[in-house]
Amino acid sequence: MEGLIHFDDPNFWLFIKNAHKEAGGIYKVIAICDQKRVPINRFLGIDPDGVLYIGMGLSYRRIAALKKSISPDYKGKQHICGRRYKSNPNIAKVFPYETLFIEAVYSHNPKELEQTIIETYRSKYGEVPPLNAI
């Protein structure tokens, strides 16, 4: 799918580097199955985009921590998204690792963009994405 890449794709780092350039940006963890986004039930409706997490990084290192922490072969707890994903085995049953993709967007002000996107999501669905902290 356009603008998304699977965590195990061999071009993952090139994709992230090109998307975030040197300044960083925001990223979303998205659930995809059979080439379609997996809708997620939320408090005030259904998120048709399948957004599980919204985060930001000033460099690719933050995404490296996410990639490691969400990987089934990694035991570390560097990233909150990975900790939450692995904290309940039912999450991985509903959203297996094979269905997880990342969408990365460049921003000269990633912190502001992340806050705007999360607030827009919260406004629309009455809560933040399921793997985000409140």
Structural class: alpha+beta
Mean pLDDT across the residues is: 90
Quick one: how many beta strands?
7
Task: Please give the count of helices.
Answer: 5
Q: How far apart are the termini?
A: 29 Å
Order of helices and strands: EHEEEEEHHHEH
> Which stretches of 5+ consecutive residues score pLDDT under 50?
none
Binned strand content: 25-35%
Count of the domains: 1
Q: What can be said about the biggest beta sheet? A: 5 strands, antiparallel
Overall radius of gyration: 14 Å
Query: Any idea what the shape is?
Result: globular
| Share in helix | 25-40%
Account of the 3D structure:
The mean pLDDT is 90. The strands form two sheets. Strands 1, 2, 3, 6 and 7 form a five-stranded antiparallel β-sheet that branches. Strands 4-5 form a two-stranded antiparallel sheet. It is an alpha+beta fold and 134 residues long. Helices cover 37% and strands 25% of the residues. α2 (60-70) runs parallel beside α3. The chain has one domain (4-125). The longest helix has 16 residues, at 110-125.
